[in-house]
Specification:
This protein has 4 helices and 6 strands, in the order αααββββββα. The chain is of the alpha+beta class and 146 residues long. It has a domain of 82 residues: SH3 type barrels. The longest helix is centred in the N-terminal third of the chain and has 14 residues.
Length: 146
């Protein structure tokens, strides 16, 4: 009976990770897999593109809907550079996409806000063309830093 209890306790401890060996310190120059503790806090405080951004309406600071966030362009240096906003959308199909620096979009009271934007101003912006965006990302080592 004692052996069964010890086996159950050992199994429970192993399931909870209590019997796993301690991780070793990271070595300089080694590429860790996964994220660090610092990066986890950034992730937790960040926005999920799928859950909180894509397909959501974008309003101006007056509360008027000026578009819908369709896409996010990520630069090779990992920066989220541009939001692609549908300036005119009918039944989910975009008629006129525009590129906007992501730094101009904020969340105010749970809504995406593009301060200073108007429907007329957004519609008058040059149309964004996907044909100029890479379909296949380039390798970081091939990216020329500016």
């Amino acid at each position: 009976m004692k052996i069964v209890k010890l086996a159950v306790i050992a199994f429970a401890a192993a399931s909870l990770g209590l019997l796993t060996p301690l991780t070793e310190a990271q070595e300089a120059g080694a590429q860790p897999i996964g994220v660090s503790v610092e990066q986890v806090s950034i992730i937790v405080n960040g926005w999920s593109a799928k859950q909180s951004l894509l397909g959501k309406p974008v309003y101006n600071d007056q509360g008027e809907k000026v578009g819908v966030l369709h896409d996010i362009i990520v630069a090779p240096d990992d920066a989220v550079s541009f939001a692609i906003i549908a300036a005119h959308q009918f039944i989910g199909v975009s008629q006129h996409d525009v590129a906007v620096p992501m730094t101009q979009i904020d969340v105010v009271n749970g809504k995406l806000v593009w301060a200073g934007a108007t429907r007329a101003a957004v519609k008058s912006m040059p149309e964004f063309q996907y044909s100029r965006v890479r379909v296949t990302p380039i390798a970081r080592r091939d990216y020329l830093h500016h």
